[in-house]
Fold this sequence. Notes:
This protein is an all-alpha fold. The chain has helices spanning 32-52, 60-71, 80-113, 126-139, 151-171, 179-202, 207-217, 226-245, 247-253, 257-262, 267-289, 295-307, 311-335, 344-367.
Amino acid sequence: MPTVEANAQTTPARTGPDHTPGRAPGVRHVRAGVLATVLGAALLAALTFAVAWGSTDVPPREVWSVVLRRLSGEAPRPGTSDLIIWQLRLPRALLAAVVGAGLGLVGTAVQALVRNPLADPYLLGISSGASLGAVGALVLGLGAGGALGLGTSGAAFAGALATFALVWLIARRGGGFSPLRLVLAGVGIGQFLTGFTSYLVLQAGDEQQTQGVLFWLMGSLGGASWETLAVPAAAVPVALLLLLARARALNTMMMGDETAAGLGVSPARLRRELFVVTSVLTGVLVAVSGAIAFVGLMVPHACRLLVGADHRRLLPVSALFGAVLLVVVDIVCRTALDTQELPVGVVTSLIGAPALLYLLDRRLGRNA
C-alpha cells in the first residue's frame, strides 16, 4: 500500500483563473470530450465481446439480437443462446462495468480526500471491514441459511458500515478532522481486520470452503446476476452525481486548506462528505465483487495524466476508464485458462503494477 504523506507536505497544484488545477508545464492533455467518446465506444465493444466470448462462443450479432428482443419485451426464444446471453454473461459483463466505474470514482475521491495521487480507495480500511463481514458469513454460517440471514453481500456491506463508523469516530477524536489522522485510523483498523479475517479463513470447515473464501477475497464476479447488479448499478451513478456536484470544491481543496477556506469551501465539511460517499460506495462494491486491487489506484492516476486534475473532467473519465478496464480484465479471467477461472484481483495486480510503475517513471522523469 502506498505511503500517504502528511497534509503539510503536499504541494498545492497549479491553478487557473477559475480556481481549477492547471496543467504542469510541458504536459499536453487529451480533450476530455474526445476521450470520453472513445472510452464509451470501447466500453460498448468490450461489453459485446464479454458476452460473446466464453466456453461457448456466440456471434456478436446474436448477442445484440437477444438483448434487443429482451428490451422490447419479446418472449425468449427456445435454445441455449438466450440463456447464456441474458441470464449468465450479460449481468456479469454489466457488473464488471459498474464495479470498474465505481472503483475509478472511489479512487479519484480518496486521492482528493487525502490530497495524494497515490492514495488507494482501500486505504481507509472499509474494504477490510467488508471482507471480514463476508468471510464471517461464509465461515461462521451467517449467510442466507444462518441465524442472521444476511447473506454474503449483506454481511460484507454491514462490515463496511461498521468499519466506516469506527474509523470516523477515531478520526474525529479531539474535534479535528485531518487527512493524516483519517489515514492512520483507516490503516490501523484495516490491518487489524485483515488479521482477523485471515484467522477466520484458517477456521474454515473444509478445504473447498477455504478455497472459496480465498477466491472471493481476491475478487470475483462469478456470482453476478440481475439481482446483485441492481444495488451497485444505482449506487454508482448517484455517487458520480454527488461528486460532480462538488467538483469545483474538490479542485479548490487540492490547493490547500487555507486557500480553499479563503474561496468559501469548508475543507472539514467536504472531507466528511467524501468520506461518507467513498465508504458507502466501497462497501457496495466489495459486497458484490470482493476485494479487487489496483483499479482504484491506477485508473485516476492514469486519467489525471490524460485529462488533467480538474475533477469536472477527471471524475467521468475515471468512471469510463475503470469500466472498460474491468470488463476487459474479466474477459481475460474467464478465457485465459481452460480448466479454471482466474481471480479478478490477481489479473488487475499483474496489469496494474507494471503500468503504474511506468506512469510514475514518466511523471518523475518529467519533474526531474
